[in-house]
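Researcher: Quick test of sequence recovery. Tokens follow.
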């Protein structure tokens, strides 16, 4: 997707509406149109990056820093907030719908509608060790990329 077609880029440029909570030179945070719970915020880098692989590390740190601050702020509001989730969907298989990197920050409370359904079962140590080795190999490959 080109940045001139991206809804988040349009928000950054002021070409589309958003209920902005915070912005600086690098990030913008605004209310999600389809909130999981009241207070659901999206933290978006102003520079277009479709996903993690397109996002410079320093900009990712700025997104996280902003999300951390907003998560703390949610706890100090009059919104129902007994906990906070940070949710990142990177790629279609991970349920990313808008292909401009963004981090969800939303308040949680007992009985709220958000659920993650998974097969939560303990794995054997050998399988965990093999998976850890695969991730270590991925780190080696990442270090060889010209980023």
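Model:
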């Amino acid at each position: 997707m080109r940045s001139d077609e991206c809804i988040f880029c349009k928000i950054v440029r002021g070409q589309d509406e958003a209920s902005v909570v915070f912005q600086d030179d690098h990030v913008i945070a605004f209310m999600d149109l389809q909130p999981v719970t009241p207070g659901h915020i999206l933290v978006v880098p102003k520079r277009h990056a479709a996903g993690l692989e397109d996002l410079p590390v320093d900009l990712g740190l700025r997104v996280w820093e902003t999300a951390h601050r907003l998560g703390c702020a949610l706890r100090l509001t009059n919104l129902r907030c007994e906990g906070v989730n940070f949710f990142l969907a990177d790629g279609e298989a991970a349920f990313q719908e808008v292909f401009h990197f963004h981090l969800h920050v939303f308040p949680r409370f007992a009985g709220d509608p958000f659920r993650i359904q998974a097969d939560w079962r303990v794995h054997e140590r050998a399988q965990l060790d093999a998976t850890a080795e695969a991730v270590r190999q991925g780190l080696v490959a990442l270090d060889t990329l010209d980023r």
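Residues 7-116 form a domain with the HIT family, subunit A fold (CATH 3.30.428.10).
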